[in-house]
Amino acid sequence: MSTIEFRTREGGSTRIDEAAVAAFGGQLRGELLRPGEPGYDDARKLWNGMIDRRPAAIARCMGAADVVAAVRFAREHDLLISVRGAGHNIAGTAICEGGLMIDLFTMKGIRVDPEARRVWVQPGATWADVDAEAQLHGLVVPGGIVSTTGVSGFTLGGGFGWLTRKWGYTPDLLRSVEIVTADGQLRNVSPKNEPDLFWALSGGGGNFGVVTGYEFEAQPLGPTVMSGIIFYPFERAGELLRFHREITQEAPNELTCLFAVRTAPPAPFLPEEVHGKRICGIAMNYAGPVEEAAPYVERIRSFPGEPLADLIRPQPFMAHQKFLDSGQPWGRQYYWKSDFFDILSDEAIDLAVGHWERITSPFSSTLIMHLGGAAKQVPTGATAVGHRNAEYVMAIQAAWEDPAESDRHMAWARAFWNDLHPFSSGNGYINFQTEDEDEGRSRAAYPPAVYERLADVKRRYDPDNMFRHNKNIRPAAIERSPEPAVTSD
Fold it and tell me: What is the pLDDT of residue 485?
């Protein structure tokens, strides 16, 4: 009888009868895709074009029953598994080499209860999907800053965005979760039902199972908000970042500002003479009535000198959520480094300007977002979010198209990060960590007490570390020794 080779959790291999694999596929409402079959190569593509792995099989799930079948099959045969939501994560952990990929990409259902202000979301949905349904009712679920980002990984990793200062990190709005745990059981968890597991899912990453549904509390906003971006020549970057620091120290919780450096696109709103050249800008969103935003817009516009473009205006919140999308298209090569900061010192700003002057790709950029506000008012440890007290986050985003240029562009991002890291608060953001960041960096994403509690919850719900193809938190009972690499051959 012929067999199919799979990779095991510990990095070895096992062979499973084709009949057993076919029987597993027959349990699914969705498809079980194998190499060479129609749809397989499309299913294994991610947003980050650097990631190119080939699972032995892809279970393209249609619902929770498919996920239960996939987890039980993987457990029975001790298989390496990975879990894909919308596929937007920088590290590419959604795809495993030689194992079983549990693919949730087609699970995009969303339901809104406008009276209760509740939104139920399946794990393949993006924030654009959620916005489209919630904004029909004048509601939002606080999400990110790029609409193609997936809800699932973003939420599990403690995501932030334009509305964080007003309503907190996205897990702060989470009210219940449907999850398939390592024992193959479907559970509904909330602050009242298995509260420790619910707490761990509120920022602890994809370590505890396969989430098949989220319930969020929505907030009233829009459909029109005061938002947009104002651009200046790159030569003003140091001055503008200091101005950004000044206005963010004054900002109410409703106002979120983001400083950006990028290459000017050939857009009609920018003068032709700056197309293809570096520019800098401050983007903003006011999470309140449009008419109340005027003094804050005036303050942002008070930066001396003529801007290259002023795009701050009343506009649909959904349009604002999408304005950064074009700079992060699917399939490009991406490598990010990031840090949180309590302050932006003059020395750190000067170092950043120097690295922007040496940028190696026209597709690379840097974003510095103001956090704090309502997110900082929730006590550390109330959820598993590890960066509760941060004032700023800097994302150094190297991007390019030719894989042969990878070393040069990655070196730029690493050098930038190495120079700025001593000025940071020392902790990082799980969702911005690349494939090559080590376990120590993942530990640093959480306060020690939070990390130890996460490890204890992991021990209780996944003692064998079945869900490890991620920024892994090992079960507390497992001795902390290096595990075999499982991301590539």
Answer: 43
Task: Report the C-alpha gap between 347 and 121 in whole angstroms.
Answer: 44
Fold classification of 224-439 (topology level):
Vanillyl-alcohol Oxidase; Chain A, domain 3 (3.40.462)
Quick one: pLDDT at residue 481?
45
Name which of 109, 144, 141 is nearest 125 in CA terms.
109
Residue for token pair 């940028």: 359
10 Å Cβ neighbour count for 451? Answer: 18
Burial 82-94 (b: 16+ CB within 10 A, else e): bbbbbbbbbbbbb
Under CATH, what is the fold of the domain 110-220? 3.30.465
Measured distance between the N- and C-terminal CA atoms of the chain, rounded to whole angstroms: 27
H or E element, residue 400: strand 392-400
Domain-wise residue ranges, the chain: 3-103, 110-220, 224-439
Would you say 364 and 412 are in contact if contact means Cβ atoms under 8 Å apart? yes
> What parts of the chain have a pLDDT lower than 50?
479-489
pLDDT at 388: 87
For residues 488 and 479, give the distance between their C-alpha atoms in angstroms, rounded to a whole number: 24
